[in-house]
User: Which sequence fits this backbone?
């Protein structure tokens, strides 16, 4: 005889089985076309490059060594791969610059939206979201048109008499930075807004009652309250910046490479798939470190809030 | 203006509104410029030559553009439909339950495409699919649809799950008490309530698929350009306002979908 509790357990089991079955198609598709292939990348990073792209099936750690070191073709001496390191450094530098700049612009903007009357907040948010959902390529192209030598920026500067001849912005690191700030700004504003919306402004009022200045209120009350939003926004901007491919390709003009373009190069002209695979995994590890940093910070903030 | 009369506005910070306005201005300046120059009669991008629709006309008669647009729409519709169905099932399986073994793993797995840089997934798929192409000889649109479906699932999943979490089980329990079969309960109670979430998820997936550049660029075989990869190729050359015309139409479609998405998800509350 099955007791009531046994029946309940059996029903629970059936429920969980059903839930696995229901999620199976999604899990299967993601495994086939996203997670699974990542393991193939891992395997490829330990093989030798083929002559015309693809790989030779022999074990080799050359690709991983090649990420940071290079062997001189003539005398075989080993040195740091300056070209790679330069690109890594540029990627990190530009991503950090993008994060700081989006924060500088995004923080006041998010605060502005969060302090609007309830009714108009949705409208301002909508204005932020529209560019975010329009095609990344179109936005990059739009920026390219604005900063061209004959573009609006240069024309306005010429008209104002600030410059005598157009300044070259396009195809420089500055162009990539401008483009990434433009493209990723909504990713900073949205999480910032989410955490600012929850601020209890009675705390701010209390601050003023205790003779705090505007700046002190901002630094000692608002900033600590929205720290999770700042961290979330920074991560959301930093990670795609680090792996950016389209923006540096269009605005960097093929000379100012970032990590993503270096990876692509190995599958195009470079014909070194294992090196491309190793570089991809290096990028992934960097991103994972950033994510872990976020999770740790987030967990700490949660604990503090109770 | 009621805030002003009280003299001291608690939530004001000096300069913030100004920066916000500059921000909105800079956000829209490039897009608006791009749209205006789509109507430029001149071939040169620099000089305004009067209002004209010639570039829209030219784009419309450009076989490659039309071809790429149709391909984009085909991939996006198929991928978004499959992704939405899978995401709905997955959302039903992962919400409104006590935590069970593997639940957290499922979350992580479903969101995995969001956590890896797109370029890495693109490279992984290039390697994987090139093997399969050699092995099977098939090089149709299936690869692109499969790739798009996979990265659309997490986007479709988010609004559907959010909607489900705001629905309690009372109505479903009531239906079951009234002898509705599980399927009937789902069709008549769960699905109608969930519908706005599903629609929002579908639109999100559709836009995400339509916008994709990187993964498509790496996965596509010859002659399989979508509109974004076609545009990426064109940007290497000297561009004419035809590019602006194409972008303007594309923008319009995105804006319409996003507006609908906003209206649908706002009805939730």
Assistant:
């Amino acid at each position: 005889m099955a007791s009531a509790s046994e029946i309940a357990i059996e029903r629970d089991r059936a429920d969980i089985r059903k839930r696995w079955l229901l999620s199976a198609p999604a899990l299967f598709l993601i495994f086939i076309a996203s997670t699974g292939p990542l393991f193939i990348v891992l395997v490829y990073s330990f093989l030798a490059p083929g002559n015309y792209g693809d790989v030779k099936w022999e074990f080799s750690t050359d690709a991983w060594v090649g990420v940071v070191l290079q062997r001189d073709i003539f005398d075989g001496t080993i040195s740091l791969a300056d070209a790679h390191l330069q690109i890594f450094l540029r990627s990190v530098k530009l991503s950090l610059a993008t994060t700081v700049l989006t924060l500088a612009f995004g923080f006041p903007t998010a605060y502005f939206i969060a302090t609007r009357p309830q009714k108009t907040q949705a409208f301002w948010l909508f204005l932020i979201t529209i560019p975010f959902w329009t095609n990344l390529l179109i936005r990059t192209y739009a920026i390219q048109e604005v900063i061209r030598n004959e573009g609006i920026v240069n024309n306005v500067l010429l008209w104002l008499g600030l410059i005598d001849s157009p300044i070259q912005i396009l195809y420089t690191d500055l162009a990539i930075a401008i483009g990434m700030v433009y493209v990723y700004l909504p990713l900073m504003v949205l999480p910032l807004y989410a955490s600012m919306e929850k601020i209890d402004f009675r705390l701010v009022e209390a601050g003023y009652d205790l003779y705090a200045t505007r700046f002190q209120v901002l630094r000692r009350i608002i900033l600590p309250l929205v720290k999770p939003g700042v961290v979330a926004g920074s991560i959301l901007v930093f990670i795609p910046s680090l792996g950016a491919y389209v923006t540096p390709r269009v605005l960097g003009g093929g000379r100012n490479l970032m990590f993503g373009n270096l990876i692509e190069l190995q599958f195009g002209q470079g014909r070194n798939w294992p090196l491309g695979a190793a570089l991809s995994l290096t990028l992934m590890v960097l991103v994972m470190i950033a994510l872990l940093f976020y999770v740790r910070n987030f967990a700490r903030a949660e604990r503090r809030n109770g | 203006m009621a805030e002003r009369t009280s003299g001291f506005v608690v939530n004001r910070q000096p300069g913030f509104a100004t920066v916000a306005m500059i921000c909105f201005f800079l956000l829209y300046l490039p897009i608006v410029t791009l749209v205006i120059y789509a109507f430029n009669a001149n071939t040169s991008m620099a000089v305004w030559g009067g209002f004209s629709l010639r570039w829209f006309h030219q784009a419309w008669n450009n076989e490659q553009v039309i071809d790429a647009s149709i391909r984009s729409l085909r991939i996006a519709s198929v991928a978004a439909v499959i992704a939405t169905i899978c995401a709905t099932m997955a959302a039903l399986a992962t919400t409104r339950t006590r935590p069970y073994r593997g639940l957290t793993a499922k979350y992580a797995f479903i969101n995995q495409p969001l956590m890896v840089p797109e370029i890495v997934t693109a490279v992984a798929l290039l390697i994987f699919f090139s093997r399969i192409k050699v092995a099977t000889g098939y090089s149709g649109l299936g690869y692109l649809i499969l790739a798009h479906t996979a990265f659309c699932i997490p986007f479709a999943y988010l609004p559907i799950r959010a909607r489900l979490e705001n629905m309690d089980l009372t109505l479903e329990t009531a239906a079951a008490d009234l002898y509705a079969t599980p399927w009937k309960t789902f069709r008549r109670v769960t699905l109608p309530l969930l519908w706005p979430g599903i629609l929002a998820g579908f639109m999100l997936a559709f836009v995400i698929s339509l916008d994709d550049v990187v993964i498509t660029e790496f996965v596509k075989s010859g002659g399989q350009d979508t509109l974004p990869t076609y545009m990426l190729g064109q940007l290497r050359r000297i561009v004419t306002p035809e590019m602006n015309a194409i972008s303007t139409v594309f923008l319009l479609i995105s804006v319409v979908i996003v507006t609908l998405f906003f209206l649908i998800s706002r009805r939730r509350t």
In short: The longest strand of chain A covers residues 55-59. The two ends of chain A are 47 Å apart (CA to CA). The mean pLDDT of chain A is 89. Strands of chain A lie at 47-49, 55-59, 69-71, 78-80.
